[in-house]
Design brief:
Helix 12 (289-372) packs across helix 19 (606-618). It is built from 23 helices and 14 strands. The protein has helices at 2-22, 28-34, 37-52, 55-84, 94-100, 102-111, 119-149, 154-182, 186-212, 226-244, 260-284, 289-372, 380-402, 415-424, 427-433, 452-469, 525-535, 560-571, 606-618, 629-638, 655-665, 683-692, 703-714; strands at 115-116, 252-253, 411-413, 436-441, 448-450, 475-484, 487-495, 539-544, 550-557, 598-602, 622-626, 643-647, 673-677, 695-698. It is α/β, with parallel strands linked by helices. The strands form 4 sheets. It has a 5-stranded mixed β-sheet. A 5-stranded parallel β-sheet has the order 11-10-12-13-14, with helices on both faces. Strands 1-2 form a two-stranded parallel sheet. It is elongated and about 115 Å long. It starts with a helix and ends in a 9-residue tail after the last helix. Strand 13 (673-677), helix 22 and strand 14 form a beta-alpha-beta unit.
């Protein structure tokens, strides 16, 4: 956009110059109307930016738009006088309009667009802007209006007004320069540099006009009008630059509370400046006794509202300082509590890691025993072992959650499998209610890297909402498809119920908003869904269908890794095998036939390695295992395994180092790893697992799910689930 605005501005200014020269620099209509276009264009760009922006940035551009509109109003009044009367009087209604147009600009600069302000500081800033406005009004009335009221000389009036406007322009330009030099982020510095250039041109244009055209020989329609058009062209460039840099939100927080006393001193200085200005003016300026008397009374009168605002501002500042002191004490207590929790969390994490290995053995071997006795009912003893082991694992998970060490488990998933598994949990309730559940699932969708358990929570919540919206027997449709532009996977859950009230559509994802009766819902369901979908980089929206009922749409991004995982999955299918991703009876009876494949298990715990090997042996795979990671590297150099299941924390080479070396010697195996780990306390480990985009399991894990992950990775017809 910057390039477009720059070209348009250059063409416009050059076109005006040609027209001005052709008309002899004397066509008033051309000059006056031409000066209206740049500020209105800047106002339009500012409004467009404000609509896209948030927080302090939105306020900044709205104030800039207000300034440009007020300036355009003043120029319109100027045009009226210039055209109808042939000249603009020295004492003109345009003077206060042009002077007041600077107030929104001063407010915009004072607020600093790149800094986000807390509420308490924003209130104080508003009072500061009121002080600035009061002082500007005092200066204008004192030096300009007082002469009009007392019948002073027009020449003195014009001189005072001109110097006051020049002083105003200088202050604004210097203020913008300070913002530019103190901005901490480079994009904001670049934009503010252009913005400062526009305000500097305003000041320079005023000075040149006073010095080079003191007699006023050049009126509207001359090339001198460029001095009033060029600043807005440059300000429009600043707005375009902000759009190109995507400066739609503040980049930093407001300065700390310690700067408040300095700002308070500025406020007090402005208060002192009122009588000081009056004293200096009486000694230096030659005015009539009547004007001097009026100015003295004005100075004394203005000190009253000015003093009230200063007192209120100081009160708010001191209250903010008091609250900050109380918050500091509270923060120290919270920090001490967090340090205690961090120590507890570190202890719990270590204990959990040591407990998870034996728990994995107990649960795993109990699961193997249960699988070996498929044809017989599970014995009471075996059930007790599994229940108590699961209870112990639950206690460990709760301790980790309490200590803030709980970790989401993301892995590559086929979205159709996630959808079917979520729907399966609601089938009994739908059957009781007489509600039909239909599917329209697209085949060969790319895999998605997500936390299956949390995403199923989203789908279950949406299905439950659809159930609640159907009064009697009805139907719920779940559809999946791929949209190419932009590349994304779309999931739609629709019903033929009562739909959502139009006035509620904009609020359905707000926390604690619910359309149900008291005690029937907390109003957090859809807001939690919104948060989970956003965590996965997706979007969710709800709307009413044209034929009745509501439809909720989830969009998930498709990355290059997503398609690569899908291609690997398809290439691993046996020749002539067709994979049906949407069988009619797949909701209740998933197919479970495994393909022969070579698997390597690497775990320094011999019991865990043996456990995983035996489980995969029973599933029909050709499995090898080792407790030495360096030996595993040698084995991989000799053999291209279909899947490598590796622990993350191991002596010699840990899982991360093993993976890195395998990627070097066999790049095609970079997506053939499944990691198992109990190292949930290491951010380095979690970052590695996320970057590798490989599936992983946290100990203790379910052997059936691990087997399913292997099945999906090698391309067998499992239950569409990895990890």
């Amino acid at each position: 956009m910057t390039r477009t605005v720059a070209i348009a501005s250059a063409v416009y200014l050059a076109g005006y110059s040609v027209v001005s020269l052709v008309t002899g620099q004397s066509n008033v209509w051309v000059g006056d109307l031409a000066q209206l276009v740049p500020p209105l264009a800047f106002a339009g760009l500012s409004i467009a930016l404000a609509r896209r922006s948030t927080g302090q940035v939105r306020l900044f551009w709205n104030l800039n738009a207000a300034h440009a509109v007020v300036w355009a109003v003043g120029q319109s009044v100027w045009t009226y006088y210039d055209v109808n009367a042939g000249r603009v009087p020295v004492i003109s209604p345009t003077d206060p309009i042009f002077f007041l147009s600077s107030l929104p600009l001063a407010a915009a600069l004072y607020g600093r667009p790149e800094q986000e302000k807390p509420r308490w500081l924003f209130d104080i800033i508003v009072l500061d802007i009121v002080l600035i406005g009061l002082f500007a009004a005092f200066a204008y009335v004192y030096f300009v209006v007082s002469l009009v009221v007392t019948g002073g000389s027009e020449d003195v009036y014009h001189t005072n007004l001109t110097q006051l406007l020049n002083a105003r322009n200088f202050i604004l330009a210097a203020w913008a320069a300070w913002l530019w030099r103190t901005a901490r982020t480079e994009p904001w510095r670049r934009m503010l540099a252009i913005y400062c250039g526009g305000l500097t041109l305003t000041f320079v244009g005023g000075i040149l006009s006073d010095v080079l055209d003191a007699a006023g020989n050049h009126g509207s329609g001359s090339l001198w009008d460029l001095a009033w058009m060029m600043p807005y062209a440059v300000l429009s460039l600043a707005a375009a630059r902000a759009y190109d840099e995507r400066l739609f939100a503040p980049a930093e927080h407001a300065p700390p509370l310690s700067r408040l006393p300095v700002v308070s001193l500025i406020a007090v200085a402005l208060l002192i400046l009122i009588p000081t200005t009056d004293e200096i003016a009486r000694r230096v300026l030659d005015v009539s006794p009547l004007t001097e008397s009026l100015r003295t009374r004005l100075a004394l009168t203005m000190m009253i509202p000015f003093g009230v605002v200063v007192v209120v501002r100081e009160f708010l500042s001191r209250r903010a300082l008091l609250r900050a002191g109380q918050q500091l004490v509270s923060t120290r207590e919270e920090l001490a509590q967090k340090e205690k929790l961090a120590a507890v969390g570190q202890l719990v994490s270590g204990v959990a890691h040591e407990l998870n290995n034996p728990l994995q053995g107990v649960l795993g071997y109990a699961e193997l025993l249960a699988l070996s006795q498929k044809d017989q009912p599970e014995s009471e003893e075996l059930r007790a072992i599994r229940d108590n082991a699961n209870r112990a694992a639950g206690i460990v998970r709760n301790l980790l959650t309490f200590a803030g060490r709980a970790t989401p488990a993301r892995s590559w998933q086929q979205i159709n499998g996630v959808v079917r598994e979520a729907a399966q949990r609601r089938v009994p309730f739908l059957q009781l209610a007489g509600t039909r559940l239909d599917f329209r699932l697209a085949e060969r969708l790319p895999l998605v890297y997500l936390d299956a358990a949390r995403f199923q929570q989203v789908l279950i919540n949406l299905i439950e909402n659809a159930e609640a919206a159907i009064d009697t027997s009805g139907a719920i449709l779940i559809a999946t498809r791929r949209e190419p532009d932009p590349d994304r996977i779309v999931i739609e859950i629709s019903d033929n119920g009562s739909g959502v009230r139009v006035e509620d559509l904009s609020k359905i994802f707000d926390p604690f908003f619910t359309t149900r009766g008291v005690g029937e819902g907390t109003g957090l369901g859809l807001s939690v869904c919104y948060g989970i979908v956003r965590e996965h980089g997706g979007l969710i929206r709800g709307e009413n269908r044209d034929v009745g009922g509501a439809i909720f749409t989830i969009e998930l991004p498709v990355t290059a890794d997503s398609q690569e995982q899908r291609d690997v999955f398809d290439q691993a299918l046996p020749a002539g095998t067709a994979r049906n991703e949407n069988p009619a009876d797949s909701l209740l009876e998933p197919v479970a036939a495994n393909r022969k494949a070579r698997i390597l298990v690497v775990d320094d715990e011999d019991s865990n390695a043996t456990l995983v090997r035996r489980a995969l042996d029973q599933a029909g795979y050709d499995v090898e295992s080792t407790t030495l990671s360096r030996r595993a590297l040698v084995m991989i150099e000799r053999t291209a395994y279909d899947v490598v299941i590796a622990d993350v924390r191991m002596p010699e080479l840990n899982g991360q180092e093993l993976y890195s070396r395998v990627c070097q010697i066999r790049p095609e195996m970079s997506r053939r790893f499944i990691f198992i780990t109990g190292d949930i306390d290491s951010e380095d480990t979690l970052d590695f697992l996320d970057r590798s985009r490989c599936g992983y399991f946290m100990k203790p894990f379910n052997l059936e799910r691990l087997t399913s992950a292997v099945t999906t990775l090698v391309g067998g017809p499992g239950d569409d689930r990895i990890g």
